[in-house]
Design goal:
Elements lengths: L2 H20 L6 H22 L7 H16 L4 E2 H7 L1 H10 L1 H8 L12 E2 L5 H28 L2 H25 L27 H15 L1
Antiparallel strand pairs: 1-2
């Protein structure tokens, strides 16, 4: 890969990371959907480019694949009697909070064949689990692609960008905290955005724990 192409890959990766952080932590669909697409594209391009160079990503790929399989298994519809045995917690929760599930359980006949019985996945919110699976797949592809690329060219340029981004995020948080006097529950992020749900914003994140999590992930990279 040419020097220009390598720099483009690093720049695109840093832009994706910056978008994920600066767009309120990418907690809204308009933020995490393009983020997932961008990460998947960047990761795929990097894998196609660097995998022929036999970059050492196979063990990592197996680990990522195993996690993906575990998530996907939670979306497999199971007959309700099977679900009650496999995941009693899911059965108890849905009996209490999901009327359609309760009706399906009470209307079930012992003579029904398995193929005609009502079914439900282990996940109590399959649509959200599916969304999480899609995002996990996109970010896993991004991680695998960068692993292959950085194994060949080194991580220094990307690390410098992550450190610089961390400094920017910290400054945003410090300035906002100083301006508001620490009144985080009434804080407008960037001075104009009020989070949809009450929380404790810090920096561009709608929750200070999100800021702390980002920094905890970035710190080992910087060190």
């Amino acid at each position: 890969m040419s020097l220009l192409a390598r720099r483009t890959l690093i720049a695109a990766s840093l832009l994706a990371l910056a978008w994920g952080a600066l767009a309120f932590g990418a907690v809204y669909p308009w933020a995490y959907v393009p983020l997932g697409i961008a990460c998947a594209v960047i990761g795929a391009v990097a894998l196609v480019t660097y995998r022929p160079l036999h970059a050492p990503v196979r063990p990592f790929t197996i680990a990522i694949g195993s996690i993906t399989l575990v998530i996907a298994l939670q979306l497999v519809p199971l007959p309700l009697p099977w679900l009650a045995k496999v995941s009693p917690g899911t059965d108890r929760f849905l009996r209490s909070y999901d009327l359609s599930y309760s009706i399906g359980r009470t209307s079930e006949s012992p003579d029904d064949s398995v193929s005609h019985r009502p079914a439900h996945p282990i996940s109590i919110a399959p649509e959200r689990t599916g969304r999480g699976l899609a995002l996990f797949g996109a970010f896993a592809l991004f991680t695998l692609g960068l692993t292959a690329a950085l194994s060949v060219h080194g991580a220094v340029p990307l690390v410098r960008g992550v450190v610089a981004l961390g400094v920017v995020l910290a400054l945003i948080g410090i300035i906002q905290y100083a301006v508001t006097g620490g009144a985080t529950y009434t804080l407008k992020i960037y001075g104009f955005w009020t989070p949809q749900y009450r929380g404790s914003p810090f920096g561009p994140f709608i929750n200070r724990n999100h800021f702390a999590g980002w920094m905890l992930m970035a710190l080992p990279v910087a060190v």
